[in-house]
Design a protein that fits this description.
Largest sheet: none
Number of strands: 0
Mean pLDDT: 94
Distance between the termini: 17 Å
Structural class: mainly alpha
Strand content: under 5%
Length: 140
Amino acid sequence: MYHALTHLNYLAVLVTAVAGFMIGWLWYSVLFGNAWKVEMKITEEKMKECAEQGMAKFFIQGFVYTLLSTVGLAVLMRAHGTTDCLKGAELGAFVGLLLVGVRLLNSGVWERRTFKLSAINVGHEVVMFAVQGAILAVWR
């Protein structure tokens, strides 16, 4: 894994992380924002409270975590020798569903998340990792 980590295209990883972060914005605002807020019990008052406290720290933390997970995916893809767009998307979806998604489902059981909330969150991970896998595979 060390060899794979040291031979990454870090510009590709950074741009792919930005793409993944933008997928999160689209997923949790335009596509499933209202349903997600209902499931999370986020009211307009809570939204105003967060806005007053400043959203920058949330966005920065979210981007850092997205960047780290993108590095992890890039290392796996490099070590696996994935260079085809479809194979990259396939590997990304695999990671998103069977590694990250299943762990989210497990924690959701204990945190008593609704099925709908879990589906929204896992769906995001699968789509994000699939798109990132496709990008990383073709951008050497």
